[in-house]
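Notes from the 1:1 (GR / supervisor)

We went over the backlog. Supervisor wanted to see one worked example end to end before approving the batch request, so GR pasted a single chain during the call. The sequence is below; no edits were made to it. Supervisor asked that the structure be written out right there so they could see what the output format looks like.
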Amino acid sequence: MAMNGEQLLTQATRSLREHTDAGWVALRDDVVAAAVKAFRPSAPVRGRLPGGELWVASAVLVSRVRVAVAGVPDAAALRITCTTTADDELDRLTVELVALYGTPLVPLAAEVRRAAAATVARTLGLADPPLDRVRVDVSVQDVTPDARLL
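Structure output shown during the call:
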């Protein structure tokens, strides 16, 4: 038997009223728990502009470096972290990679360093890539023979 719109609304209302408040509270706790798990604090990183300072969330800096590293052939970023000084200046960027088997690692690391440093310089308003001021550590954590896994 087909229901008209009013009958369908009445049935839906009755079904919703059958749920207990305790059920809604449990659902709300699950939603809050998921939101808390998703929250990731991001430390500020100080940058410089001609008119003054700027602040960039470390998560934004890491995301931009991840995009830059994705442009480097035969490698992919597994993890990128940044460390700041007590004054929120970027001190060190660490890039952990997976590399394609057979790729010369020293030139690969140099290319990743250049890409990361140039991205940091653009993001933080630095005139030159900060290779001499900020250390970019590159660590190959895994090697794969399958380029599709990069």
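Supervisor's comment: The beta strands are 44-49, 52-57, 75-84, 90-100, 135-144.
Batch request approved.
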